[in-house]
Amino acid sequence: MKILQLIKEEIVPLSRKQHIVLFTIIACIFQFTLFYAPALADAAVQDANVQGNVQEMTVSNDSMVKTATMDPAAANLSIQNKATSTATSTVVKTEVVKESTHTITAYNSDVAQTDDTPCITANGFDVCKNGVEDTIATNFLPFGTKVKIPELFGDRIFTVRDRMNKKHATRVDVWMKNRTEAVNFGVKVAKIQVIK
C-alpha cells in the first residue's frame, strides 16, 4: 500500500477526474484478466490442437490464466480466432492413397539452397509470406499433392509446391523457416503417405 501511495502522491500526481479514469482502466484490466483469460486460453489450446500437432497438451487452469495474462498478443489472437475455432475444430479425415519410403531432408529460403527468388517455390507459391511449414519439394509427385510424414511430423499435412535438383529423383525436401532447424534436421529416411 505504501508503494501505491508513493506513486499516487509523488510519481504520478493526478486530478480527481484522472484518478477515476485510471481506476476504471485498472478495474477493466483485472476484470478481463480474471474472468475471460481462462476461456481465451482454453480456445488457444483448442486452436493449437486443430493446427495438426499430435503432441498432447495437458494444461491446468492455473497455468492457462498465467499464460493468457502474461501474453496479451496470444489473448487477442484467441479472441480473433474464437469465432473460427468452432468451425475448424472438426477433425479432418484423410484417406491414404499410397505409401512409400524416401530420404527426407530440409531446406529454407536461402539463395544458396534455392535460386535468386528463395521465397517463391517452383509453382509460384510464396512460402515466406505464407510462413507455415507445410511445403515440400519433390520431383516424383505433381504440384498440389497432399502428403503426410507420420514418423517425423505426426498428422501434419504437407503440399508439394517445389522441385529439387534433378539428381534427387525420389527425395523429399521439407521447407522450414529457420536455417538452423533445417540444418539440424539432417538426412532421415521415413515413410510418406500420399493422401486425398
Question: Explain this structure to me?
Answer:
It is a single chain. The chain is of the alpha/beta class and 196 residues long. The protein folds into 2 domains: 2-88, no CATH class; 96-195, RlpA-like domain (Barwin-like endoglucanases). It contains 7 helices and 6 strands; from the N terminus they run ααααβαββαββαβ. The protein has helices at 2-11, 16-50, 61-70, 72-88, 127-130, 150-153, 179-185, and strands at 96-107, 135-138, 146-148, 157-162, 172-175, 188-195. A 6-stranded mixed barrel has the order 1-5-2-4-3-6. α2 (16-50) crosses α3. The longest helix has 35 residues, at 16-50.
Features:
196 residues; alpha/beta; Barwin-like endoglucanases; six-stranded mixed β-barrel; 7 helices
In short:
This protein has helices at 2-11, 16-50, 61-70, 72-88, 127-130, 150-153, 179-185, and strands at 96-107, 135-138, 146-148, 157-162, 172-175, 188-195.
Shape call: elongated
Largest sheet: 6 strands, mixed, barrel
CATH fold-level name of the largest domain: Barwin-like endoglucanases
Question: How many domains would you count in the coordinates?
Answer: 2
Please write the CATH class name of the largest domain.
Answer: Mainly Beta
Beta-strand residue percentage: 15-25%
H and E string: HHHHEHEEHEEHE
Write the layout of secondary structure elements.
Layout: H1 2-11, H2 16-50, H3 61-70, H4 72-88, E1 96-107, H5 127-130, E2 135-138, E3 146-148, H6 150-153, E4 157-162, E5 172-175, H7 179-185, E6 188-195
Parallel strand pairs: 1-5, 2-4
Antiparallel strand pairs: 1-6, 2-5, 3-4, 3-6
